[in-house]
Every structure is written in structure tokens, then in C-alpha cells.
Request: fold
Amino acid sequence: MTIPTEIISPQFKQLETSFINWLQTLNYSEETIKTRKRNIKEFLLYLERCNITTIESISNYKAKRFKRYLKRRENKLYGSGLMNASINVGISSVNKLFEYLQQMGRPTPENLEYVEERYKPRSILTLNEINQLYETTHQTHHFASAETKAKSEAVSQRDRAMLSIYYGCGLRKSEGTNLKTSDILTERKLIHVSKGKGSKERYVPVTGNNFNHITEYLQNGRNFLLNQNETDSFFISQYGTACSDQTLTARLKRLTKNSGNAVLQSKKPSLHTLRHSIATHLLQQGMEIEMIQKFLGHASLESTQIYTHIINEL
Reply:
């Protein structure tokens, strides 16, 4: 028996089109819209195979059976079953469709529950722990000379910029070390990530104190550390050369130690921990997962979906 590949119901055809138009008005990325469209078409085709051709006929029972269908269907690319992360992306798309129908004043089934995923535990810092890292950069010390004091302040400014890039902007480790001064678009309050994963570029907004920390370092601390050397790298070492990721990692380790917080120290945060933390915090604050996907530069929702499960365990 051949499984139909095109929607027949006129109402479902119209629903698919209007739903995609709605996503476009919300400024979802082309990749996200493509994924949503594929998932929703599969859902509507499934309903038609169940002899359901109108919105009013979609029952809670049939909607939940679609999740069972996803669990059992074969991965079209690899032949095996779908990973739970892929099933959850499909569920997320269906729930988004239900949200659209609710806004249109149409009857909708209950949202589908996500399936449990297996993933490597990720260390997530609390907001208080993040604030402690920032506060640690302001610790005062006694210095033998004014020059030593000035260098220490420059490094502290770089530390705050580092936290603002990796936590405030959620950059990957290599994206931060590859930053050039020309990538800091101060007038537009944006960071241009020109060397993202998979050679993809994106623009990341910089807000509040993160913007102040980045511009303060760019205008003051960086120039002091540069000390007549020539490089357009954003992060500069105390020797006036481009910072390696080992240098920035060592600074984060030092800040963690100086915080005096035993719980924070036990987490042994890395630069990537800061990225995981901001993604989790944004989701906790109610940001749409599609917006977080765009913010982090994930190619698909599957990579971002993991944070929906992390917050349930915090």
C-alpha cells in the first residue's frame, strides 16, 4: 500500500499555508519554518489516513496516537527508528500548530507531552553564580606599582568582556576566540559571528551591562594590553598577542577559584558552560525555543530541544 504524500483535505491545505504564513510573520528562520512545515504536513497526512479531514474532528486520542506513530516510524535517512530528540521536534511543531489554532479561536486538542531523552548531564550555573563571577572581576588587590595595577585592571576588563561574550551572547568557545574588533558592531549593539559552526554567520544582540563591559574593554583594557602590537583579535593576552582559548579558560578557572563559592567550584565551569547557562536561563524566562535556536546558532531545533529537559531537572 502506497502512503499518500500530498494533503487532500481543502481545510488542511489552507491550514498548512496559513500556519506557515503565521510563522513567517513571527520572523522564524527559514530553517525552522522548513522543519515545522515538514512536521505539520506529516501530522496532517497522518490524520487523513485516520479519515480525519477537519480541524473540529481532531480528538485528543488521535493527536496522542500521532506521538505513538512517530515512535514507531522508520527514520527515512538511516532506516532505524527516530531518535527521541527528533520525535520531540515533531511534537514541538504539532504543539505550535495547536497554539496557532487557539489564537485563531479554533478548537484544539491538548498539547502533546514530550518523550524523555537521554543526554549527557550538563553543568548549568545559577544566576547567582553568574553574578558572583562578574563580582569577582572587581576584587581589589595591593599592587607594587601603578603599571601593575593598570595591567590588572585591563585584565579585569577583559574578564568581564569574556563573561559577556560567552554568557551574555552565548558564543561557542571558538567563536569567541575568533572574534575580531570589526565584529563588535557597537552602533548597532550586535556581535557579528562570522566563523560560526559549519561556516555559518549570525548576528547576536548585546544588551545591558554586557554591552558596557564589552565596549569598556574594547576602548580601554584592550588598548593597554595591545601595547603597540598589531592584531585585530578582540581578546588580547597580557603579552599583546591574540588570546588562545586556553588563556580564557584559565581566567575563568581563576575567577571560579576566587569566588570562594564551593558549589560553583565543584561545577568546574568551562566557557561552554556559560553558553549552556544562558540558553537555560532564557528558556526559564519564557523565550521561545526557536528564538534561542537562532541566538545560539543551532542548525536545527533538535540541538536546542535539550534545554527543555534540563530546566525540568533544576
